[in-house]
Amino acid sequence: MTRRGSGRPGDVPGPLVSHVDQLLLLTRSAGQDAIIQGLWRFDHPLEPATVQAVHDALGRGVLARLMERSVVPFGRPRWVAAPRPPGPDVAPEPRSPDDLWDWADAQVDLPLDPERGPGWRMGVLPLTDGTTVVSVTASHCIIDGFGYFDAVARAGSGEAFPGPPLPMPDEHRAATIRADLRQTLRDLPAVARALGQVGRSFRSRRPSGRSGVGGADRGDELATMSTVVAMVASDDWDARAIALGGTDRSLLMAVAARLGERLGRARRGVSTLLVPVRDLDDDPEVTANPIALARVGIAVTEAHDLPRVRAATGAAIARVRTEPDDRVLLPLVPFVPRRAVTAVSEGVLGLADDRPVNVSFLGEIPEGVLGIAGTPARWFWPRGVDRKVTSGSLARRGGVLTVHAGTLDGSLVVSVTSYQPELANTRDALQAVVAETLAEYGVQAEIR
Is residue 260 classed exposed, middle or buried when 0-12, 13-18 and 19+ CB atoms within 10 A define those classes? Predict the structure, then answer.
């Protein structure tokens, strides 16, 4: 199926972009451009026809959409169909396997734009040992991790993403303007309620966030985040979790808390973990990031007490599902001036916490992800990273630490991405920290 506009008379505007997705778009314009990257390594060369077929299949799915801003003041963006993206970027010459991460970082730095396109890219790197690496990068504005896995699994199987075709940019312009005016009026009651909450919310959140996050602006030079990947047999991970009185998720949370402490992110003896909680009621056709954030405080002295970690995590997730939080501020997003984007995102996206650790337990990754090119890859590594970010911006945020984990083909894949302003941000240094932390819990892993 194609997701491009049909041009039929009477077609309606594209669906509205959610407030969370719009906020991510605004934070991108303010200098925080989040990217999802998947890396596959195949034991053999890939035929050009296979590469092109995978690229074409991805271009027919949910990745083939962009955000179109409203011409109505304070109107919300709408989803539109994306023009065809650039073809796959195939490296002209094989490179050494030692160059893999340098090439992967370079793929992240290629232009991505969730409004003008391309919103995603595909690259292919032949290696001198006869293997092949594939990279698919996508703007976090147009898709989250779960949606990404679904998109690549469907592309590998030839299955299209469900849903009606999207209009092309500027298609049905008059109808869009009328719809945006009506929508803005419908949103006014929610905006009024949000205004009633905004003062209390930020008074309760900003002091703690500003006390721990900081550091002088260290310049405008671009910073490179380091990523390492640990691969553990799923049975071994589960066995260690059970032996320690926990579950696969609570073991990951404990490891993340200890990583935060080792990398200088704990404050007052506590690591703050931000855990996305997916709203299953949201339609992925119109919501790229259907999440709220649970905030879990883990005392570093209790990070080896997995029953306590499990209880804290469960309680935090329950609070998100049952109690109001800063998502009540989301109706204000269309009215946020650029200078205030950082403050709003800190409240709604959890960035006001003291140097938080972002932790995502992705569960079972669809099997089709590994076979995106028809034959199973040797491995698949996902990661989340900010692109084109300066060292000064990261210093003001207090750095970044992200831990993603998912199970695929009998292995738990743990991806750790880090940049700490006060530390050496090399892959070798991060590898050592990850290895030492896993060893604390008796976990043996292959770390790359």
Answer: buried
